[in-house]
Write a structure and sequence with these properties.
about 400 residues, alpha/beta, FAD/NAD(P)-binding domain, 3 domains, 5-stranded parallel β-sheet, 10 helices, binds flavin-adenine dinucleotide
């Protein structure tokens, strides 16, 4: 593989900017162009639904500091959307009329929040949360709000509910699941989060969905549920998941997977010559799981971006890391590693579920497929080892044994 002279990266989030940094940190001497539709310097997203939304932090975590890009000769095209990729000519076209040749191309366009296709969805006061500007607007709205309705009981909905409570608003969360986070954690562990929020004064409308939004003079005043009841609201956050940003890839004729992402192989390569994808947008054939997975987590964006950078420079290593994510809500902090199949895996809990200090293991027969630590911080390496190796274990070992001694 000859050394590329110019690498173009589309997407100035963690995957894209992390890849640009990794290219330089690996000593790549050629040109690096990074295009980001967002006008802000590349930043990480987790604080947007936590410290920044609460008001504890004034800035997000930046992927690199202000001077990094000039000091490392990364041509940063901020506020510049790429509008087309021409595979044959190996060109990227941007909205400002620029045409840029590439030798290698990384697609790191992330995801965009899903909206609700119902009447009233365009009323003011209805928010989604993806960008720094979204978070600043939502924070300002929470600060003034009396009644907040959050549609969606997943991670972002749950974290935003905690933030809205900290701002002193009345908060109701509407979810289609009967327990928050049920599709990721199942009812038992999801129930821990429900009880935590309930203690903090959050109200729930679960197992239901939104019929439409009610407004007055263009501003939202309520959320009508499918049973006809109306929840009064002056601020609404729609947090019903995100869809991968695949418009460019689709228009260029790249393969998309059933999960909506851009198909890449174990090495993060698309089927088109010299085009890679990483982060939320990538649907990777993952060697550990022997199937495609698309992961919308911070660690995946960070690690895949860096991994794609190395492979673009000729490393040719498969990406094999298991998914990992974290969340913070009130005084609960947790980490989750792996990928459970809630239809088939069984749950083993060590510790105090009600006291919110426990380890949860999901097992396929006697192998740990996923593990979660809640308010326990000394088991991370052992849990990672169990998930990564799939070492056979007994329930007794998980419940009482020394986890770090399991080979
Ligand atoms: C509010 C929030 C909180 C989160 N909290 C956590 C957490 O606590 N733990 C966790 O593990 N994960 C968390 N996540 C998920 C995690 O942050 C994402 O999985 C990760 O940031 C994805 O990074 P990315 O680089 O793939 O995509 P993004 O960060 O979405 O970046 C993609 C970038 O591409 C740009 N772009 C798109 N199309 C174009 C184009 N045509 N031209 C130019 N630029 C383009 C976009 O403007 C965007 O800046 C959170 C996500 C959100 C939204």
């Amino acid at each position: 593989m000859s050394e590329p002279q110019r690498i173009v990266i589309i997407g100035g989030g963690l995957a894209g900017a992390g890849a640009a940094a990794a290219l330089r940190e690996r000593g790549y001497p050629g040109e690096v162009l990074l295009f980001g539709a967002d006008a802000h310097r590349p930043y990480e997203l987790p604080a947007l639904s936590k410290g920044l939304l609460i008001g504890d932090a004034e800035e997000p975590d930046w992927v690199r500091d202000q001077n990094f890009y000039t000091e490392h000769d990364v041509a940063l095209h901020l506020g510049t959307r790429v509008t087309r990729i021409e595979l044959g000519a190996r060109l990227v076209l941007d909205a400002a009329g620029g045409e840029h040749r590439y030798d290698r191309l990384l697609l790191a366009t992330g995801s965009k929040p899903r909206s609700l296709p119902v009447r009233g969805a365009d009323l003011t006061g209805i928010h989604t949360l993806r960008t720094l500007d979204d978070a600043l607007a939502l924070r300002a709205a929470f600060a003034k709000a009396d009644r907040v309705v959050i549609v969606g009981s997943g991670w972002i909905g749950s974290e935003a509910a905690a933030a809205a409570r900290k701002h002193g608003a009345e908060v109701t969360v509407v979810g289609m699941e009967t327990t928050p986070l049920e599709s990721v954690l199942g009812p038992e562990v999801g129930g821990v989060f429900r009880d935590l929020h309930t203690e903090q004064g959050v109200r729930w409308r679960l197992g239901t969905s939104v019929a439409d939004f009610v407004g007055d003079e263009g501003a939202v005043t309520g959320v009508r549920l499918t049973d006809g009841s109306v929840l009064e609201a002056d601020v609404v956050l729609v947090a019903v998941g995100a869809a991968p940003e695949t418009g460019l890839a689709h228009a260029a004729g790249l393969d998309l997977s059933e999960d909506g992402g851009v198909c890449v192989d174990a090495f993060l390569r698309t089927a088109a010559p010299d085009i890679y994808a990483a982060g939320d947008v990538a649907s990777q054939f993952h060697p550990k799981y022997d199937r495609r997975i698309r992961v919308e987590h911070w660690a995946n964006a960070k690690n895949q971006g860096e991994h794609a950078a190395a492979n673009m420079l000729g490393d040719h290593e498969p990406y094999q890391r298991a998914p990992y994510f974290f969340s913070d809500q009130y005084d609960l902090g947790c980490e989750y590693r792996g990928l459970a199949n809630l239809d088939t895996d069984r749950l083993v809990v060590r510790g105090d579920l009600a006291g919110r200090e426990f380890l949860a293991f999901w097992l396929n027969e006697n192998r740990v497929t996923a593990a979660m630590n809640v308010n326990i911080w000394d088991s991370g390496d052992a849990l990672k080892h169990l998930v990564d190796t799939g070492t056979p274990v007994t329930d007794d070992q998980l419940l009482q044994g020394d986890l770090s001694a399991i080979a």
